[in-house]
Amino acid sequence: MSKFKIEFSLKQHTPLIHFQSEQSGATLRATELKPKFDRFLIEMFENEQIDYKGFLILGQERALDYKVKIIKKKVSDDKTDLNGLPDDRLFMGNMGGGTIKQMYHRNFESTVTIIAFDKNLREMIKDNFSSFMMQTNFGGGSSKGFGSFTDKENKVINYPNNCYSFKIGSNKLEDVYESISYFYKMLKSGINEKDKDKNTVFYGKSFLWLYVNKTQDNTTWEKKKIKETFFNLDIEPSNKEPFLYRDLLGLSLESDWMSYSKTITKKSTGIARFPSPITFKPILEEDGYYVYFWGVEVSKDILDKKFTISDGSSNFEISTPKKFNISEYLEFVSEQSLATHIDRKFQGDNKIFKILNTVFSSIEKVELNLKEKDN
Asked: What percent of the chain has pLDDT over 70?
């Protein structure tokens, strides 16, 4: 092997939503991996005050001087996907809108080849690639756990700040994404799930509501204001000022309030999209999936911004809060008891409660320092 070449073996843990899904053999793209790895390394260089100007491609301020090639190395001997298709491809419903997305089987192993002529840069790549893969997902739906890969050979991993994990206890992807979906709803909006006859089968108030009302002085979230304004509900008076808190965990410009047969829209000058600051990273171990999750601090671009909320016939203005600490919020959630938060009538054998209880009963804070993991 050339002294300028470094090779890594990747293990794929969850399907990759790929823009070239119609092409057999599509895999993780170098054109996605390299810019993300560049940002990861440059952020590290800047945090540790390392002079990296000599590592850059001439004339490009944020692109490091190395090349990447990715080859799909191996497919699992079991070529039957979760839908029983005799292929190495996997079809699943898109969690966002019910459309069918084509994704690739989790058991691919790929080889990443990196060529870097600068010796110091090569050493930086060797030392940090495993941590980068642990802290990064790829393709569509990456924040919700799709496109999860890890470095198969290197056991030393640096976890993200404010990182937590929970155990699924299953190797089935359906169980992973159900758990992530319900848990994320409890983090953001809460759950009010009904059956076909519109009977409530599970209700869980958002932990974000609980956090705001317990820890943020004289403030509350926007839901009460929406109900008062658009649905003419007689809400108990409160001196707390409402703010848009839920959209800090992912901006939704339109939401359906099906119980009231209305669609509520939001708009703000210069803000059309804001992704969730929380990332989920499922890792398949011998005893089932473990899901790691962490948050990056909410961007100032969405804090203290004014929005217009409308139901099509009337509207009101409301702002996002001036500050929000994602680390404090995740720590707050990790300390909560699900059993004391959910009404007893929705506990017991209730499917959603059992899923959430598995999550909450196994949440652990992950060490921030370098840690050795078994493959």
From this structure: 85
Same domain, yes or no: 174 and 143: no
Total domain count, the chain: 2
Asked whether residue 196 is assigned to any structural domain, the reply reads yes
Distances (CA, A) of 254 to 107, 189, 266, 368: 37, 14, 6, 37
Between 103 and 84, the more confident residue is 103
What domain range includes position 59? Answer: 5-152
Other beta carbons within 10 angstroms of residue 296's beta carbon come to 15
Please say if the pLDDT value at position 144 is more than 60.
Answer: yes
The pTM is what? 0.88
Order of strands across the sheet that contains 5-12? 67-74, 109-115, 5-12, 149-151
CATH number for position 71? 3.30.70
Instruction: Tell me the C-alpha distance between 71 and 110, whole Å.
Output: 6
Count Cβ atoms below 10 Å from residue 44 Cβ, excluding itself. 17
Task: Tell whether 161 is covered by a domain.
Answer: no
